[in-house]
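Thread: Putative PurR-regulated permease PerM, structure

OP (GT): Posting the sequence first so everyone is looking at the same thing. Length is 396 residues per the record. Can we get the structure tokens written out before standup tomorrow? I want them in the notebook alongside the other entries.
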Amino acid sequence: MNTPAGDGLHLRWQWLILLVSVGFVVWLLAPVLMPFVAAALFAYLADPIVDRLERWMSRGLAVSLVFLVVALVVIVILLLLVPFTERQIGAFLGQLPVWLDWFQTRATPWLETQFGISPDVLDTQRILAALQAHWKEAGGVAAGVLAKVSKSGMTVVGWVLNLVMVPVVAFYLLRDWDVLVERIHALIPRSIEPVVARLARESDDVLGAFLRGQLSVMLVLGAFYGIGLWLVGVSVGPLIGMIAGLISFVPYLGAITGVVMGVVAALVQYQDWAHVLLVLGVFAVGQTLEGYVLVPKLVGDKIGLHPVAVIFAVLAGGELFGFLGVLLALPAASVVMVVLRYVYERYTSSELYTTGSAPGIVVVAKGTQQAAVAEAAASAAPAPGPVPPPAGAPPA
């Protein structure tokens, strides 16, 4: 017969094998999980809206209304944003040879003079010659690439299936979201149900704050940087602002990328330091706005991820699961933080932390070490008994 301790150890091994098996299956299926993950994220974000709409209509009608509004918003954004982005990319590509020429004729000699960097290290002549030789053929190259991609029937079919599957899967997930949550809750072993329910609630708060808040921060920063650089006079400023906003979920990466691209664009376009200072001012105001207004108001401090932890999570997710890992890195890291807080709470309230059978280690100053040893020896010596009378003395 197994002892209770043996049963507990056996149960822990079962959980470990289950978690490892699930992780291995996810790793194997990562290439085909992208549409399902995107659909699940959309359903998770839209579920609170559908829950509010259920007060006045059925669940199915509420989901249909949400999808109709989202479809209209996406269509309007595509009609407005795609042509604008195309013009910005065209302007950027048109200025790219000028950027490289400026880097070769001005920046490289300055770097060589100030820091002793050899021009061979920054060889832009070959890049510029290649761009100048094939610039007119860019359209032909793009057409050739598109033709090669179109010949791969499976690639095109895969893209189309992903585009179709995301809204379809999202619709059914959103319609049955509450039912799925209840069924998952019913499968949890009753012995750990209170702990799992608590962690699930805390994870839901953290994920909601991160996904909704961080997306809002990215959109606001992208719009602010784009409009600010456009007002400064940088011709490709809106494109730089959108890039900086979209990658701002990694701390400081969006601002650093935007500053580098904005400074180079200002130097190439105006060749003065006044516009460079204006570009730096735009990003300084944007970082202040992000740190003191946007993140505290929209995200809050529930996530508690250190910038180094964020960078590590993104890199590790991308290395393990590709783009799917990048997409899920920060939400997964947020849930891991919730679990680690619970583990820390259990540890600090356990006997391992509060008590112990091993003797404590006392550190004393060097000057008082001999006194401490003497005091310890005196306290350890037995108490002295009565002094016997000398020989021949009368008894007391």
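GT: Both are above now. Quick notes for whoever picks this up: Confidence is low (pLDDT under 50) at residues 135-146, 362-368. The chain has 15 helices and no strands.
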